[in-house]
Amino acid sequence: MASHLRLHLAAPPPLLHNHRHRLRLPRPPKLPLLNSPAPASLPLRRPRLLSSAPLRASVDRAEEGSDGEGEGLVGEDAAVFRLGDQRVLSWAYFSGILAVVLYALNVLWIDPATGFGTSFLDAVGSISDSHEVVLLLLTIIFAIAHSGLASFRETGEKIIGERAYRVLFAGLSLPLAVSTIVYFINHRYDGIQLWQVQGVPGVHELVWLSSFISFLFLYPSTFNLLEVAAVDKPKLHMWETGIMRITRHPQFVGQVIWCLAHTLWMGNSVAVAASVGLIGHHAFGVWNGDRRLASRYGEAFEVLKKRTSVMPFAAIVDGRQKLPADYYKEFIRLPYITITALTVGAYFAHPLMQASSYKLPW
Q1: What pLDDT does residue 82 have?
Q2: 3-state secondary structure the chain
Q3: What is the percentage of the chain residues whose pLDDT exceeds 90?
Q4: For 97-141, what is each residue's pLDDT tens digit?
Q5: Is residue 308 within 8 Å of residue 248, measured between CB atoms?
Q6: What whole-number distance in Å separates Cα of residue 162 and Cα of residue 169?
Q7: How much is the average pLDDT of 195-215?
Q8: Alpha-carbon dihedral of residues 133, 135, 137, 138, nearest 10 degrees?
Q9: CA–CA distance from 280 to each of 5, 116, 273 (Å)?
Q10: Are 273 and 136 spatial neighbours (Cβ–Cβ below 8 Å)?
């Protein structure tokens, strides 16, 4: 039979035949499908291409879990320092860059024999004989350079790169900040005395405690020291934990606390002028900082903004920010410990700082 089938398939039928022989093969029997659901019971799934964007989804999850805990975060966990993530070479670069910057700052700006700092102070001081006016002018010049460069950061980084822009930012801001600080130290008691409370019991302790607390707010830049020195590529961070739960703008709050404490202690017009200039600069920074974060992070920042506040503890009091049970652990981290140690050290180093400042004819 097999040979007959092969012969039949190999030879075509004669043309005289008006019909064709068809080979009919047996069909397999129909077997019942086991455990197959009815078509109507199959779930309908939305195509993945029609789903929401990842950012929108993350924002929605954050809004649903807006208690400020873990999964609901849209910002970054602040002050995280994992020893396993650190590289010895990076911190060696940081130390080297810091040494070079301090040396260059001394030679090119601070040292009266070689630097431009004295000429700069003389030029600003020639505008007015009033220490209050000169101090305000120094603060305004610093604020324009600092906030101006921060405002154009996104554009500037596209032109020259993140690291180069960080170097430019520090190269202009740091000398101006040093000039303002030294001038304030040298002339802090040269103004009109408005009140005198230094002999009142408890005032010294209040001022010291206020200053200590202010530094915990003032320096969130220690969260990313390697970026400050441009060892790592600088980024515009949107922090959300730690001190940020208390206030969205800790530098502004810290500056206000510091200014009020020192103005109370010194009680003169120079201290008032310094406070007006510094608080005004940081108040502008509140608006400018929110603007930059909104431009960079969009909806994610709007979510963070809804559950944080500029006024300390306001979002916590009205329920927009719910602290996790282990909130205190967000402060038991190396950056905060470093700030604490440096603040205590700076207090005891006050005589040395003042002696160094008095050596400059500023």
Answers
A1: 87
A2: CHHHHHHHHHCCCCCCCCCCCCCCCCCCCCCCCCCCCCHHHCCCCCCHHHCCCHHHHHHHHHHHCCCCCHHHCCCECCCCCCHHHCCHHHHHHHHHHHHHHHHHHHHHHHCCCCCCHHHHHHHHHCCCCCHHHHHHHHHHHHHHHHHHHHHCHHHHHHHHCHHHHHHHHHHHHHHHHHHHHHHHHHHCCCCCECCCCCCCCCHHHHHHHHHHHHHHHHCHHHHHHHHHCCCCCCCCCCECCCHHHHCCCHHHHHHHHHHHHHHHHHCEHHHHHHHHHHHHHHHHHHHHHHHHHHHHHCHHHHHHHHCCCCCCCHHHHCCCCCCCCCHHHHCCCHHHHHHHHHHHHHHHCHHHHHHHHHCCCC
A3: 67
A4: 999 999 999 999 999 999 999 999 999 999 999 999 999 999 999
A5: yes
A6: 10
A7: 95
A8: 160
A9: 101, 27, 11
A10: yes
Task: Write down the pLDDT at residue 84.
Answer: 86
Q: Residue type for 84, please? A: G
Which amino acid, one-letter code, is at 206? L
* pLDDT per residue as tens digits for the range 217-265: 987 656 688 888 888 888 899 999 999 999 999 999 999 999 999 999 9
Query: Could you tell me the two tokens for 278?
Result: 């510094």
How do the domains of the chain map onto residue ranges? 81-358
Which pair of tokens denotes residue 198?
């230094």
What is the average pLDDT value for the chain, to the nearest integer? 84
Confidence grade of residue 321 (pLDDT, cut at 50, 70, 90): very high
Percentage of residues in the chain having pLDDT higher than 70:
79
Residues 6+ apart with CB under 8 A from 153: 165, 169, 236, 292
Residue whose tokens read 């002339």: 187
Q: What whole-number distance in Å separates Cα of residue 300 and Cα of residue 306?
A: 10
